[in-house]
Design goal:
The complex is a heterodimer of chains A (115) and B (118). Chain A is mainly β and 115 residues long. Chain A contains no helices and eleven strands. In chain A, a hairpin with a 2-residue loop joins β5 and β6. The N and C termini of chain B lie far apart (38 Å). Classes of the chains: A mainly beta (115), B mainly beta (118).
Chain lengths: 115, 118
């Protein structure tokens, strides 16, 4: 009963380094998304995907890349990390049918620090 | 303008009292969904309750209910008989699935930090 699994849980990067945050779900959900949470803020949408091979930008996409080659996986790539990307990152997934009601289930989060 | 406004940054409530957490929203869409999530100190996001814009009755899930006033664009969360374990951040969120050209995801408020005192 894994749900949405994110790895790693914690990561420290130096400015300019690249890394990939992993997200996998085992609920056969069509929709997957990435959010970031900064202190005193709600979550903000980075990128999302409505199915394998389809991705689109959210509210704060700059500095991040995504791809969706399978239904299960939706990795988030930081190409050249910046201190402004220090945040907690959440992956979420849901069904697509009944669009307004599709409840998004979240992973446990990845806490990223960029020095 | 903010799409989701939560006006209570923090609240202290005595155990066993009822709690109302405020949420107002802004949308021009007719079809939308409103969600509440709980984030305990451990950090995970836990879904609590959902209200659809066309739902005529207020949503209820156990001790949680949603006071939905469509004309006022408010969707307040009510927690009955609060418990110490209810201490957490609470986020109101909205999804507008048919907003033309907009991103397809949840828009969150900044949250309310609820502390239940014994």
């Amino acid at each position: 009963n894994a749900g949405v699994t994110q790895t790693p849980k914690f990561q420290v990067l130096k400015t300019g380094q690249s890394m990939t945050l992993q997200c996998a779900q085992d609920m056969n959900h069509e929709y997957m998304s990435w959010y970031r949470q900064d202190p005193g803020m709600g979550l903000r949408l980075i990128h999302y995907s409505v199915g394998a091979g389809i991705t689109d930008q959210g509210e704060v996409p700059n500095g991040y890349n995504v791809s969706r080659s399978t239904t299960e996986d939706f990795p988030l790539r930081l190409l050249s990390a910046a201190p402004s990307q220090t945040s907690v990152y959440f992956c979420a997934s849901s069904y697509r049918k009944n669009l307004a009601k599709n409840i998004q289930y979240f992973g446990a989060g990845t806490r990223l620090s960029v020095l | 303008a903010q799409k989701i406004t939560q006006t209570q940054p923090g609240m202290f409530v005595q155990e066993k009292e009822a709690v109302t957490l405020d949420c107002t929203y802004d949308t021009s869409d007719q079809s939308y969904g409103l969600f509440w999530y709980k984030q305990p100190s451990s950090g995970e996001m836990i879904f609590l309750i959902y209200q659809g814009s066309y739902d005529e009755q207020n949503a209820t899930e156990g001790r949680y209910s949603l006071n939905f006033q469509k004309a006022r664009k408010s969707a307040n969360l009510v927690i009955s008989a609060s418990q110490l374990g209810d201490s957490a951040m609470y986020f109101c969120a909205m999804r507008e699935p048919y907003s033309g050209g907009g991103a397809d995801g949840l828009t969150f408020g900044k949250g309310t930090h609820l502390i239940i005192q014994p």
